[in-house]
Amino acid sequence: MNSSLLTKYKFFLISLIIFFTPYIEFINFNFTNVDLFVVKTLIYTIFFFTTLSFIISYISKKNFNKNFFEIFYLCSLIIFFLFNYDKLKIVSSYLLKNTTYNFMGELSIIIIILISLITIIFFNKIKKSWFINFLNTYIIFFFILNIFNFFSLLNEQKKNKIENPKIFSDLKYFAKDEVKEILTNKNNKNIYYIIMDAAISLNVYNDRIKKINVEKIISDFKEHNFTYIHNVESSYGSTAWTLSQIINLSYFKNKNNLQNSIVKEKYPEIFRYFSESPLGKTLDEINYNFYWLGHSRLGCSGYNASLCFPNKKGLDTLKRLLSLNRVNPINENYVLSNFLQKTPYIDFNNKFFFLGKSAREYALSANDALNSYMKFSPKLKKEKKKHFIFIHAELPRLFYLPVYNPLTYNEDCSMLIHSKEEIEELKRKSITLNVAEWRTYEFTKPLYEKNYQCFLKRVKEFTKFINEFDPDAMVVIQSDHGTLDSPKLLDEEGEYLNKIFTLAKVSNECENNLSNKIDNINAIRLLLSCATNQKFKPIKE
Predict the structure, then answer these.
(1) How many whole angstroms separate alpha carbon 389 and alpha carbon 462?
(2) Cα 12 to chain center, whole Å?
(3) Least confident among 111-125, 241-255, 294-308
(4) Quick one: which of 384, 176, 385, 191 has its CA closest to 287?
(5) What are the structural domains of the chain?
(6) Helix (H) / strand (E) containing 191
(7) How many C-beta neighbours within 10 Å does residue 479 have?
(8) Are 523 and 509 in contact (CB under 8 A)?
(9) What is the number of other CB atoms lying within 10 angstroms of the CB of residue 352?
(10) 396 vs 407: CA distance, rounded Å
């Protein structure tokens, strides 16, 4: 084999190594959070980039008489540099200061063009010099190091893992005789379980945030047959833990080991395996459909599209929802989103995909999931099967896009527009404060206050809506946790941490089961019982 052929194959092999390096590095850093969906998506993107590079190289060879292997190598370098876009953006943000955020889409394109031009020019000048040999050596070494690290992590996981653990028990909520009775019962009711993220209880809000007429609010709910329940505590202190266990219909066996739980045991990843869960099996047994409506960060399409509200039976409405929120499975999967943050994709997508509206506007619209349901559900065809609707709204929680641009609503649920002065102040605080100080009570209080007022407005609207749209339905509106950001919302024992908003509409026969023991897990169990006229089976942690 002659030297020129060896050089060609060397370029080709190194090119493939370059293509794979950002991916293997990302997997190593996120080893416990990577699942099959993420891996498959990463493989698809590798295939896309390699195919695109192959086509460019082939065209260059045929039409411009360029060396195929060198062009392929050049393409791989450009892509490698683009995967370091996040580092380049930090530099450009510093240089451009206050103007950067508004022009991130344009900036991403400029950086792509500049990287491409510089790489092409530089490569043509020094392709046969010592620098290329040095660069190749570095890339190969870095790749081998990542591969070694990957197998070390894999080996460590095998050592710590005695067996492939089952993430679900064989638990089913109903006994066989109860299932038979439910299937013959023509009076089963639809179920709505609605999570309003980080909604603290009315009393905590009244005591620590802003004075409100708690009794008047409760009375308004009562007019629509909804009962407010005082002093309910969430099952756990985080979204991932609380919502993973609602489909388990039970508590974690080892509460002290929550931080070490594997990714597929946590929400939203656990919903990929919904059909295997106790809730999934129970609903299947009693012939109920399950639908999930999420928000801009945690939507169904990124994890289990078969559960999306509406599903394939309501494709027209689904299209409208997608056009409203501009979501796709990749954007909704936070692991993949973190990966894509390293590239120009997010900035480009936010600038040019939203067709005249900002990413902030679309996120606010998507996060108001309760409003989305009220808008679109009446347009769906009524189904013969009963259904369980799970809605997770990112409201009243404060979410930042980016950190200095909070997704905040006015009291009437319109988008809160921050002045240039406010944005600048937010930027200054984001630079000068550490993470703990950034999410302080004094800083978040006025923003959370507005979001909470919008949340109360939406809930009141929904109580009226559901009485007209589905008057016999069993409903629980609840938070997944209290607000985690503010130590001043806690007393000395920290009792306020998980005091959550809880509102329920159940049958008269079930009213006596409503108490402060109805945390998230028991709320699901109560809804199943009330909707099917069966005995409630509460559990203790």
Answers:
(1) 14
(2) 38
(3) 111-125
(4) 385
(5) 3-160 (no CATH), 176-321+371-532 (3.40.720.10)
(6) strand 191-196
(7) 27
(8) no
(9) 12
(10) 10
Does the pTM of the predicted model rise above 0.70? yes
Both tokens of 224, joined, read 């629509």
Measured distance CA(349)–CA(8) in Å, rounded: 36
| Mean predicted lDDT score pLDDT of the chain | 78
CB 529 within 8 A of CB 506: no
Among the listed residues 91, 87, 80, 90, the one whose alpha carbon sits nearest the alpha carbon of residue 50: 80
Ranked by mean pLDDT, the top range of 283-297, 434-448, 494-508 is 283-297
Q: What is the structure's pLDDT at 249?
A: 93
Q: Are 426 and 444 contacting, i.e. CB atoms less than 8 angstroms apart?
A: no
Angle between helices 104-126 and 130-160 (to 10 degrees): 120
* pLDDT computed for residue 318 by the predictor: 40
Q: Would you say residue 126 has pLDDT above 70?
A: no
Q: What are the residues facing 191 on neighbouring strands?
A: 388, 474
The SS3 assignment for 264 reads helix
Specify burial of residue 64 (Cβ count, 10 A radius: 0-12, 13-18, 19+): exposed
Task: Give me 233's structure tokens.
Answer: 């505590």
CA-closest candidate to residue 15, choices 69, 81, 60: 69
- Predicted local confidence at residue 40, as pLDDT: 75
**DSSP code string of 120-159:** HHHHHHHTTSHHHHHHHHHHHHHHHHHHHHHHHHHHHHHH
Query: What's the CA gap between 382 and 314, in Å, rounded?
Result: 10
Contacts of 115 (CB under 8 A, 6+ apart): 78, 81, 82, 88
* Amino acid of residue 352: F
pLDDT tens, position by position, 244-262? 899 999 988 765 555 555 5
Using the 8-state DSSP alphabet, how is residue 433 labeled? S
Pairing of the two strands 499-500 and 232-233: antiparallel
SS3 state at 98: helix
Q: What residue type is 389 in one-letter code?
A: I
Cα 400–Cα 456–Cα 289 angle in degrees, nearest 5? 85
Torsion sign over Cα 382, 533, 474, 306? negative
For residue 501, pLDDT over 80 is answered with yes
Closest to 339 in 3D by CA, of 25, 113, 103, 44: 25
pLDDT tens-digit readout, 331-379: 555 566 667 777 777 666 666 554 445 666 767 777 888 998 998 887 6
Q: How confident is the model at residue 88 (pLDDT cuts 50, 70, 90)?
A: low
Task: Say which residue the tokens 């609010």 belong to.
Answer: 217
Closest C-alpha to 463, from 429, 504, 494: 504
Extract the tokens encoding 198: 């980080």
Q: Which is nearest to 299 in space by CA: 277, 331, 266?
A: 331
| pLDDT class of 81 with cuts at 50, 70, 90 | confident
